[in-house]
Amino acid sequence: MSRLFVILTLGMVALFVISLVVGPAQIGPVDSLVALVAGDGSPLTLIMREIRLPRAILAVLIGGGLGLSGAALQGYLRNPLAEPGLIGVSSTAALGAVVAIHAGLAASLSLGLPLAALAGALIGVFLVLGFAGSQGGSLTLILAGIAMSALAGALTSLVLNLSPNPFAASEIVFWMMGSLADRSIVHVWLLLPFAFVGAALLVSQARGLDALTLGEDAAQTMGINLSRLRLVLVVGVACIVGGSTAVAGAIGFVGLVVPHILRPFVGAQPSRLLWASGLGGAIMLQAADIAVRVILPERDLKLGVVTALVGAPLFLHLIYKTRRGLA
Amino acid sequence: MSVLSLKDFSVTLRDRSIFEGVTLDIQPGEFVGLIGPNGAGKTTLMRAALGLIASEGDSSLAGLSAQARARAVAWMPQAREIAWPIPVENLVALGTQARGGAADTDATDVAMARMGLEPFRGRAASRLSGGEQARALIARALAQDTPLLMADEPIAGLDPAHQISTMSVFAELAQEGRAALVSLHDLGLAARHCTRLILLAEGGVMADGMPEAVLTPDNMARAFGVSVWHGQTDDGPVFQPLEVL
Fold it and tell me: Which residues span the domain enclosing B234?
């Protein structure tokens, strides 16, 4: 367990450094790191501090948050197919952002888009919790989440449908593909409280997730208050997913694939999978964000596209392995 | 000081009364077998007594907070759910963590030894056979180290040797001053190992007492609709259902 922790942490730090030295501005790796620390007001320092550093930090926060959320939801639902989007909050956050783009709020106000997305996430989590009820089990939560995703998806399509011109529509479509390009340190400050509160809430439920391995009845008699666990979990995932979507758009597959890959390395224990998936998610998203910049530097390749392109085949491979294991 | 006390205890599910007016006390040192025909409400009685489903009347466990209940009783549901392939050792350790602290390796080892699980220590629990899983889950409940252990059909699906050894473990717990409330269908094993039987039938407690006093031909005919052969050996009583009446 500790060896895995060391390996994942080293991987995350290494990718963080690589992420800082890769970009369209042709700067040597040593020069860029020196410029980052020097802080002499040169253009180089500006590039490092205003463009690359926020981007690298956001990749760690969002990737880590999505991995952690996926592990927590899979543990709660006792289902390896669960992912952070399941509770519908990513869809309502996206709807908030799309409405902001459509209404011109995103163009007129520098933080208009992320704030509108956070508002969408907030409304979404209240509606999901309201419909799922405080006493309901996991089934009502899934159903409420699916319904909310469908509704938000339909409304997003409606906004696209009614968009005044093709440019507005394409702006919306490109935003929805997810990206970390051109984000500033302000975005980091915006996401940071949500990421930390969300992570703290999810990690606090580690013991409950372990107990749920034996089913809801057994967990309840092992000192776990299931209604409270569900509430804390939904709010925690909503903080992370809402904040991440607001800052970077929709990024799929990280929360689904990362816990799946790491599960065998932590003895399948849900509590240990939480931190492992947090680190693993940070690694996966940083790698994807580096790939975006390296593979097609002159075309604006979207991060969400790359995570899905890598994640889906990886997931198919895992299904194949699982099938062989069952046979 | 009883470990479970029910007073005028009733459960109604979807306007259908499952049982009414159940009053009973379980004391430390008792190994109580809960018997009765299918659908008599054995599982419902235990889940309601734990406070997992709504009930009327009083149960000494139902009003406790989740943490206090975890120190008062360990529960092994009939559905043997193990969602992830976690090692048997870690699964049993979950029982020690239910008391609120960190995992206790000594208590885990004791519980594993009791259920003969050492050979399976590092094996993925969800990939064991049904009977092995049942033993791991019983060990998990034992590791919770509570005054009362409640189990719903814990020996269903076990081979004869493990049925007998599991019943012996429950009997040992009782001799050590703890108590067990266990539902089961094997009247012979119930008669040989339990210190007391509660027969749940016709919407309430039909009989409650020493096995010989509960397993009378009359009660067996009324509750199960079967005739029973009753013999006495040096080792204790033997009950064998013979035919449907």
Answer: 4-84+147-244
Read off the tokens for A287. 């790698």
For the record, the structure tokens of A115 come out as: 């704030």
Q: Is A210 on the interface with B (CB under 8 A)?
A: yes
CA distance B224 to chain A (A): 29
In a domain, B36, yes or no: yes
Render pLDDT for A54-98 as a digit per residue (tens, 0 to 9): 999 999 999 999 999 999 999 999 988 888 888 999 999 999 999
Closest CA to B124 of B163, B85, B92: B85
To which residue do tokens 């994640």 refer?
A: A311
Confidence bin at A203 (pLDDT 50/70/90) = very high
Model confidence over A278-313: pLDDT tens digits? 999 999 999 999 999 888 877 888 999 999 998 889
Residue B97, in any domain of the structure = no
Q: Which of A254, A262, A261, A264 is nearest to A285 (CA)?
A: A254
pLDDT of B35 higher than 60: yes
Q: Domain A2-326's class?
A: mainly alpha
Cβ pair A225:B66 closer than 8 A? yes
- Which CATH number goes with the domain that contains B216? 3.40.50.300
* A215 with B83: Cβ contact below 8 A: yes
Residue identified by tokens 């010989």 is B212
B240 has a chain A CB within 8 A of its CB: no
**Would you say residue B129 lies in a domain?**
no
The shortest CB-CB distance from A267 to any of B75, B86, B100 is to B86
